[in-house]
Amino acid sequence: MRKFIEQDRKKIINILVESFKGNKSVDFVVGQTEKGRKILMEYSLENCLENGEVFVSDSGNSCALIKYSDQKSKPFKLWVWDLKLALQGIGIPKIPQVLKRESSIEETQPKEPFLYVWFIGVDPESQGKGEGSNLMNSILNMAEARNLPVCLETSTERNFKWYEELGFSVYSSSNQFGFLFNFYRKDLI
Predict the structure, then answer these.
(1) Inter-axis angle of helices 9-19 and 34-51, nearest 10
(2) Which string of b and e fits 131-162 if b means at least 16 CB within 10 Å?
(3) How many Å is the maximal CA-CA distance in the chain?
(4) How far is it, in rounded angstroms, from Cα 177 to Cα 180?
(5) What angle do CA 166, 168, 110 make, to 5 degrees?
(6) Interatomic CA distance for residues 112 and 114, integer angstroms
(7) Cα 138 from chain centroid?
(8) Which end of the chain has fewer CB within 10 Å, C or N?
(9) Three-class DSSP category at 39
């Protein structure tokens, strides 16, 4: 795995837009359109570049957007991205529901510092070939070196078993927004 370079931007956005097609949680936030997913992924990439890290697999067919729970910088450019996401991705009528969802996630997450896997995506043609596992194992090694637990959540039921096989445990679940949403954690210390 390697760190993001600017030339990766378009490929990362495309991987995330395609790999999160049909994701119940993403659809809840931005609807089922490619345009909505693209705006969300552009927003998320910018946020992680400011408050975390972005990684690309050695093959270039998978990526991960990582945030550190104790980093919450909000420069002006992220306020602009918030506005773009709200107006062009979410839509004004849905903003209260999305804010409630985000608040619920933050309340459920651990209070101590952790490494947050916000998005991990694999190009659909490369799924099922170990791409995601290799990338996640690199992330777990990085978190272990930093003495941080790793947390994430997913609404994609086919990924529940995958996370559990990687050693993650469910620490909370929710059906609050009309679909099963599992919160996962792996302690590496």
Answers:
(1) 130
(2) bbebbbebbbebbbeeebbbbbbbbbeebbee
(3) 43
(4) 8
(5) 145
(6) 6
(7) 16
(8) C
(9) helix
